[in-house]
Records
---
Amino acid sequence: MGALLLITGDQLSPQLASLKAADRQTDTLLMVEVAEEARSVLHHPKKLVFIFSAMRHFAEQLQENGWNIDYIKLEDPDNSQNFAGEIRRALTRHNANRLLLTAASEWRVLEMMRQWRDELDIPVEILEDDRFLCSTARFEAWASERKQLRMEYFYREMRRDWQILLEGDKPAGGKWNFDSENRKPPRDGLTVPPIPKITPDAITADVIELVATRFADHPGEIGGFSYATTHAEAEQHLAHFITHRLADFGSWQDAMLADQPFMFHALIGLYLNIGLLSPLDCIKQAEQAWQDGRVAINAAEGFIRQILGWREYVRGLYWLSMPDYARLNHLQAERPLPGFFWNGQTEMRCLSITVTQTLENAYAHHIQRLMVTGNFALLAGLSPRAVNDWYLAVYADAFEWVELPNVTGMALYADGGIMASKPYAASGAYINRMSDYCRGCAYNPSEKLSENSCPFNYLYWDFIARHEDKWQANARMGMMVRSWHKMEAGTQQALRGKAADFLAKLG
Ligand SMILES: Cc1cc2nc3c(=O)[nH]c(=O)nc-3n(C[C@H](O)[C@H](O)[C@H](O)COP(=O)(O)OP(=O)(O)OC[C@H]3O[C@@H](n4cnc5c(N)ncnc54)[C@H](O)[C@@H]3O)c2cc1C
Ligand code: SF4
């Protein structure tokens, strides 16, 4: 008689807290593929393939390392298709004397785990997930001393805590942040090294067939799956990024090109979030590349800030603010999601490209998520619930703890400024400057009031006017409100009229 451990699909780390606490001789590891989770939103088929295949590979690896594995596949006829049912069945099968868990990354699932303590007649132990660089207690302590929770100050503390990019106690290169060097618009002829592709092995091929059959109703292309599904493959992918792409990561971090869905981004979020890569390892490798003179400080710092800063910050904010955070809707946005979010069929080329690439790859890079789809959802007043469900479904790296603050806080300003000091709202001029999307678009980014003026332009001013009362209290929005007031009444009316017509047709 030993313990039963449940390992969920995003806990695929050999260093998982519960694995470290378990006994290979006596304990059993339970891994389950359940439809209740796979269908919680319309997860992209490639995301499902990625997670199920990585789970199956991890189970094989653990078994080779001498662990007792009980793996329940989705198609197992006795599978109850939910965590609670599978735990009950496994406890009976193995006559286990306790349940050992690592805390779930998502609030809903952690609540479920806590309930098992009351419902099961054996001890249930939930260990903290220590794969992050900032514990929830450390974040709470940091937050409790502040009125405003700005990422930049949190990030500096993390740099000090982990002694990253420091020269003595000063930031390497003399600045904490090299963001001002990391906003270059794309230039013609910019070449981007291709992302390495992995040919699916027999395990992945089986999973592709399974997902294609069982989740045919989930939007997104399953063909061409080429993501890593093992630790070794993910580490090779990271090494390729550090050698071939990191040097240009900083400069072109905000740039968008129609034929480059990945630009110089690392494409590691999916691996970090299920445990195929360790955040500290990614950070150390980037720091080493800078120390060796292989990349400039703006590239290394820009990349490290994303992981040591943003990733840890959004997780801290999530646990500090849940469950209320999921219900926030500061701008009272209620519009349903337009159909083109599920098929990319719109004449707005930036949106069409971003959505099409998303459905193809289960990936879009940060600026596409924030300044194209996110910006549109913000300006059009789309309902945060609907927008969150979409982001959670379509990206292979989407898990609620990281998706929700980014959507509700960063993209939609639905938290009223807890995360961002002002809304990330922009007109067509921003997208035109930072991408090649506007060339060949049916709309003109330089026009506001003509027949084919870019919808972002009038939606932007409508957004400023619609929520004017909210911007009075925000010093960073003052200039835009003043610009709105300087416009002639006729222009204001025409802009709002065009926005109303557009939104009415959005369906
Ligand atoms: C509206 C919106 C939704 C998002 N949803 C998710 C999500 O569901 N899951 C997710 O992991 N990230 C999300 N992000 C953050 C970011 O866009 C992705 O982490 C990134 O695009 C993943 O691609 P990459 O690995 O190539 O990242 P890179 O640009 O190469 O960055 C490296 C890593 O830094 C981390 N990172 C960068 N920015 C952020 C951020 N804002 N928050 C947290 N971590 C960050 C990620 O782990 C990422 O893999 C979202 C951002 C926005 C604006
Ligand atoms: S013109 Fe407007 S809608 Fe068209 S691609 Fe540019 S920003 Fe997008």
---
Amino acid sequence: MVHLKTNLAGLTFEPPLILASGIMGQTAGSLEKMIEMGMGGVVTKSVGSDSREGHPNPSIVDVETGILNAMGLPNPGIDEFCKELGKFIPNKPIIGSVYASNTDHFVGLSKKMEDHGVSAVELNLSCPHAEGYGASVGSDVGLVRDIVENVVKNVDVPVFPKLPPMSDMVTISQVVEDAGAHGIVAINTVKSMAINYETGRPVLGNLYGGYSGPGIKPIGLRCVFDVYKSVDIPVIGCGGVTTGRDALEYFMAGSSALQLGSSIYYRGLDAAEKISSEMIELLDQEGYGSLDEIIGLAHQ
Ligand SMILES: Cc1cc2nc3c(=O)[nH]c(=O)nc-3n(C[C@H](O)[C@H](O)[C@H](O)COP(=O)(O)O)c2cc1C
């Protein structure tokens, strides 16, 4: 039977399925629960310097092939969140996600996360629905280089920039690798909107949201494929992984580990357990002896 385990930037993920940022990541209790339910690691909700309420409702809408959310990065601010982190009893890696609009804030937030025991830092350079943050920062290549370089210089834990889906993933990946990143997370949600034909109005309070779930899998696969061929650091795939088959496809595109977000909605709190069993069954069925045999297979 294939053993599902990955070593990445000095961290062990067993199984290599990690809770994505923003889903069940607000409290120590919910993060621990997700590990109990089969995740090999967890990412916190993205946290900024100050508390933030987020966007007005409706902020989530179910569309046929996925979910649109325009939460707008609601969070209690780093100091309150660190109190929560202090309650977390780690037995698997915990990755602290941070967002900011400038380098100094990214550095300060990352240092606080490190001081409160995270195993790695994830830089949110990719949220598509928070003006001035996320993808607005991630689309400025010079700023991205400066942020990554300075965070890497100032913390001792691994640093994982989380990139938005872009038509050119090669340039940005090479920039973050040159800047010293230890791995790349791809992708965040895809900027999108929903319109109600009865009212003739956009559905989300913020007009625009981020699309996640099964419908974005082909976009995520393409991005991971392009990142894998452009850099030597590991890629953590994310976007629409809902079944063991999706997971295998992402590993074949070049992922060394995966993040699961919307699958909690589609498969339940034990999504990681279900996806792990399905992966093992499929790997056995196809005659693979280890996960390593399929990482990047689609590039041969
Ligand atoms: C409700 C919701 C909230 C999210 N919040 C964050 C966040 O705070 N930071 C972040 O980097 N990504 C956030 N994301 C994006 C997810 O981490 C993930 O990148 C995206 O949903 C694609 O993966 P999925 O298809 O498995 O959900 C959020 C997604 C959803 C659905």
---
Amino acid sequence: MANYAIGDLQGCYKEFQALLLQVDFNPSKDHLYLVGDIVARGPDSLACLDYLYTHQDSITVTLGNHDLHLIANYMLDKPANPKDKLTALLGSAKLPAYIAMLKQQPLALWLETEQVFISHAGLNPAWSIEQALQHAQFAESCYQGENARDFFKHMYEQHPGLWSEQLNEFERFRYIVNYFTRMRFLTLDEQLELSYKGSITNATAMMPWFEHPKFTTFKQHIVFGHWAALEGVTNHANIHALDTGCVWGGKLSLMELKNKQYFSANSTDFI
Ligand SMILES: [Mn+2]
């Protein structure tokens, strides 16, 4: 029995299958954690969800921004962006079942045995792992509850800069979702910086979230995706960036969670 994590699939089904073959993934014994962004931009989002659905007892996803966007569009009856290449998925008779499956997935996970925290974008340094899991549970109850449509309606409004107990439930939901699914940079006063789209080298008055001083003495492992431009590099042995840009011509990365051993499949082998 083994546990694995794989970075952002984004419809890269062939590389996904190649990786599972490489590690001899056995759905009847092993468990697979996907760090989110299963769908969008890549060639075969439908095949990825077909596989997840068939093996859902052996797979857990920590939802990414693209997954939440798919659910939101579905629930709010909004059209997809053509560049997301979701036509086949949106035309599938299985779509309602796939949306229901995605909605059951968490935003964050803690694996005690492996000492691994997993979420799509990482861990907000202002939160302990326990607090992060509590925030994730609140947001999950929002998108799994009967008022889910209302929460999705408010998901794209302005980010509430600071956490406060005065935030209403929609603002709290949005704040938590943004940290778990969209975070890359933090300002020097530790607020989420969502507008900057440049490189780390050119970033001024901000830092990648994992460069926060908290993480110099952080002992647990963090597994995340979302940030292909990192090319897997965080300069922290215990902070694992698994989005290695498969959909952009890079590779798909897998980590065996007990021994922290890496495997990859190059997208250029599948053109
Ligand atoms: Mn993402």
